[in-house]
């Protein structure tokens, strides 16, 4: 008998718990302790193999200092297919986590907007132009 695959929404919600927990620098053990459960249960939640009940998700949102809606996209309607895997991959990466922590630490909304604008400009400029700028000796003087 084949094991049942986790539901994609449970996997997504679990990943959002993991990303937020890591962003705060909290361990699975620390979160488990605050919830009064084992860290193995946190692992199962984060992998999506066990569903998180509504009251437990509410408590997790309080501990992680985010609204319950944080764990869902589109106002709670669930993840968008395609975008979800890319977003999860990015947020789960070392670089994505570091960028997320740094961005959250920026308190000035104007600076945040400028950073987003810079990222969009770099993305549309293309990697080859960015590489060329980095190699230009005038840029380094």
UniProtKB/TrEMBL annotation:
Residues 17-71 form the HTH cro/C1-type domain. CDD domains: HTH_XRE. One of its GO terms (molecular function) is DNA binding. It comes from the Bacteria. This is Probable transcriptional regulator protein.
């Amino acid at each position: 008998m084949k094991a049942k695959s986790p539901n994609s929404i449970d996997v997504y919600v679990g990943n959002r718990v993991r990303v937020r927990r890591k962003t705060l620098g909290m361990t699975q053990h620390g979160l488990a302790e605050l919830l009064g459960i084992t860290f193995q249960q946190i692992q199962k939640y984060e992998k999506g193999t066990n569903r998180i009940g509504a009251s437990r998700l509410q408590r997790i949102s309080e501990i992680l200092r985010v609204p319950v809606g944080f764990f869902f996209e589109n106002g709670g309607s669930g993840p968008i297919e395609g975008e979800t895997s890319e977003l999860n991959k990015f947020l789960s990466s070392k670089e994505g986590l570091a960028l997320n922590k740094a961005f959250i630490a920026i308190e000035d909304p104007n600076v945040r907007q400028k950073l987003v604008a810079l990222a969009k400009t770099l993305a549309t400029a293309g990697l080859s132009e960015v590489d060329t700028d980095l190699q230009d000796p005038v840029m380094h003087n």
